[in-house]
UniProtKB/TrEMBL annotation:
Domain of life: Bacteria
Database matches in InterPro entries: DUF4010, MgtC_SapB_SrpB_YhiD_N
Source species of the chain: Pseudomonas arsenicoxydans
Span of domain DUF4010: 177-386
Listed name of the protein: MgtC/SapB family protein
Residues covered by the MgtC/SapB/SrpB/YhiD N-terminal domain: 12-128
Keyword vocabulary terms for this entry: Membrane, Transmembrane, Transmembrane helix
Pfam families linked to this entry: DUF4010, MgtC
Transmembrane segments: 6-23, 59-78, 90-122, 142-160, 172-193, 199-219, 231-251, 263-282, 303-322, 390-411
């Protein structure tokens, strides 16, 4: 068994070296100006890292790395006048380390090797993107998003504080990052696909994280791009497709029997939402709707904070109502919690039914009340983020969605 694992590790190291070496071989040049390392050098270096780790552990790998550093330094100074870059040299060290890593984590080493090969292969496109396509505003927004998501969010405490224990700083930070990420995803999609299809696709995808946040992001863009207000409104309404699908997935995951009385309302909601969104997406006067945006930031941090604090306020009010008036019933709970999130409310209702505290045929009412209150919350967010014109397109779509789902309940 150990021999099999050893052969697998050696094969992984050889594959990594040959993959990266093949890419370097294609770009090493010819004659006296060729680069210092190609296919054979990278393959041997990867195997050297693997064998060194097997024989002497990390100490021997370090000694080999020092020797390799001396060789690479000499080769670099010899070719400095022709190519001042150090990409091949750094890649050679990476291959040595990945070869050693194949002893303990070959899957991780292979994944990193493939990523490195991809970065080397698409270097010109990456250079063009960084120098010609990426604006200063987009670069600044990207750094803010990364710092918030990778530094601030992990350090934020995950516990409930404040009155009624309704405020969670981790939740607030997560929602802020989510709103910024939704704006960034939409921005990238629009840059690639144009406004009509880019906004719609990004809104549906982002809706699986939060349809309410997606509507807020589309509203903010509508303020800056009033000419595309119908397309943006369509994208906002289409984000409800993700909400409906998630409600169905939650019910089906808890117990497939819960869908018996909900499949028709969900199906009607999907159909009406898709029809309304498509009608807004393809107006006769949508000239230039497929033109990609050229400048501007990826998201608005101020809007993210405002929307997040608004949703936190709704949660606080809901907790206060429940604390003062008690558990008046599942209906009241669904109404209050639905203002902030339809998914958590649906999950709690499904759990009650699964536990036998609520009949299966009685979940439709509470579930649709949660969706209805969430739809009302989205109407408010649309008005606040996008103004009256944006809300005038979004609100009818939300009303049509809600009525269609209630009609499905009455029919079934």
């Amino acid at each position: 068994m150990n021999e099999t694992l050893g052969m697998a590790g050696a094969a992984a190291a050889l594959g990594i070296g040959m993959l990266i070496g093949l890419e370097r071989e294609r770009h090493k040049g010819q004659g006296d100006s060729r680069a210092c390392a190609g296919l054979r050098t990278f393959a041997v270096t990867a195997l050297l890292g693997y064998v060194a780790m097997q024989v002497g552990g990390g100490l021997l790998v370090g000694i080999v790395a020092l020797g390799l550093a001396l060789l690479v330094t000499v080769a670099y100074w010899r070719s400095l006048s022709d190519d001042p870059g150090v990409t091949s040299e750094v890649a050679l060290f990476a291959v040595l380390v990945l070869g050693a890593l194949c002893n303990t984590a070959p899957q991780l080493a292979i994944a990193i090797g493939v990523v490195i090969a991809g970065l080397l292969t698409y270097r010109q496109k990456l250079h063009h993107f960084a120098n010609s396509q990426l604006t200063e505003a987009e670069m600044s927004d990207g750094l803010v998003l990364l710092v918030t998501a990778l530094v601030v969010l992990p350090l934020t405490p995950d516990r409930f504080i404040g009155p009624y224990a309704a405020i969670n700083l981790r939740t607030i930070c997560t929602l802020t990052v989510l709103l910024m990420a939704v704006g960034a995803v939409g921005h990238i999609a629009v840059r690639a696909l144009g406004t009509r299809y880019g906004y719609a696709i990004s809104a549906i995808a982002s809706g699986f994280a939060s349809s309410t946040v997606t509507i807020a992001a589309m509203g903010h863009i509508a303020v800056k791009e009033p000419a595309n207000i119908k397309v943006l409104s369509a994208a906002a309404v289409l984000s409800n497709l993700a909400t409906i699908i998630q409600v169905g997935l939650i019910l089906g995951t808890v117990d497939p029997g819960l869908l018996r009385n909900m499949w028709l309302p969900l199906l009607l909601g999907l159909g009406v939402t898709a029809l309304y969104g498509v009608c807004l997406m393809f107006p006769a006067s949508a000239a230039g709707a497929n033109e990609p945006i050229k400048v501007g930031g990826a998201f608005n941090l101020k809007l993210a904070l405002v929307v997040t604090l608004t949703m936190t306020g709704i949660t606080l009010v809901s907790s206060a109502m429940l604390s003062h008036f008690g558990q008046v019933g599942v209906m009241l709970t669904a109404t209050l919690t639905g203002f902030a999130d339809a998914h958590s409310s649906t999950a709690s209702i499904a759990s009650l039914a699964k536990a036998g505290l609520l009949p299966f045929d009685a979940i439709a009412g509470p579930a649709l009340i949660a969706v209805s209150s969430n739809s009302l919350s989205k109407c408010l967010v649309a008005w606040v983020s996008g103004g009256r014109r944006f809300a005038a397109y979004v609100i009818p779509g939300q009303v049509a969605l809600t009525l269609a789902m209630w009609a499905g309940t009455l029919v079934s």
